[in-house]
Known about the structure:
294 residues; mainly alpha; disordered N terminus; 76% helix; globular; 14 helices
Amino acid sequence: IVLKINGDLVESLEYYHRSLELKESLLSADDPNLARTYNNLGNLYRIMGQSELAMVYYQKAESIFKTKYGSHDPMVGKLYSNEGLIYTRYGDYEKALQYFNQALTILQNDEAYSEDIASIYNNIGNAYYQLNDFNKALISYTKSVAKREENASVFRSRSYSNIALCYSKLNQYENALQYHQLSVDYLIRFFGKDHYLLAAEYLNYGHFLINTGRNQEGLKFYLQAINIFQYNYGDKHPSLSSCFGNIGDYYCQERDYLTALKYYQQSLFSIATNFSNKFNIYSNPDINQQILSK
């Protein structure tokens, strides 16, 4: 768990798979300890952009907990929340909201799951944001921040970042800038300068700066995000692809089409699993090439 928090994802994955092999050899197929490892593996695969594998492990865990403890067990609520995240990545935001609300119903009266509740509010906000309902999104993000500040949670940076995105959409740019800066400050303070969550915030912050005319500052944050994502994930990851794509969009708007194509090529390379041509803009992956999910 410590490895995952610190961003050492590959090492965490190896650790959990070794743990799983041991537990599967010693425990019955419906043992809750096995289900917890399935859930941890699901979380890692989700973070690494492998949504289908994540869902497989989440559903295995859900089946065990429901069988052992019933459908209202807190771990079932946590798994509904995790599965809602997968549906968010699939773009099925209405279904994601159903899962998040089911999770909230199970967990909301138990203070032991305060951070989970804060995360669910944040994820509900994300779904409304994608549905372009920015006022509902802001309400949910604000509930998430209140819960996290109440518990001095280090994860409040996620909610700060999302509030910033909402204010930007609502044309309240000074508020947006304030919350982006809060998010960056907290991430550096609690996780350091190489954590993947900081890279995600740099991606958001860079986009905001470019949209408000601070182009060079925005590009600087995009490039910092690329370096951090590569440090954590290597050369293949959806978030890395988004960084390259955003830089390509910027140069396209500037009518520097050749530079834009170079960044779009790297964006393709980062998301196409078996595509190896990173720099030749005249070489593209097959239309049926498997891609990593966001």
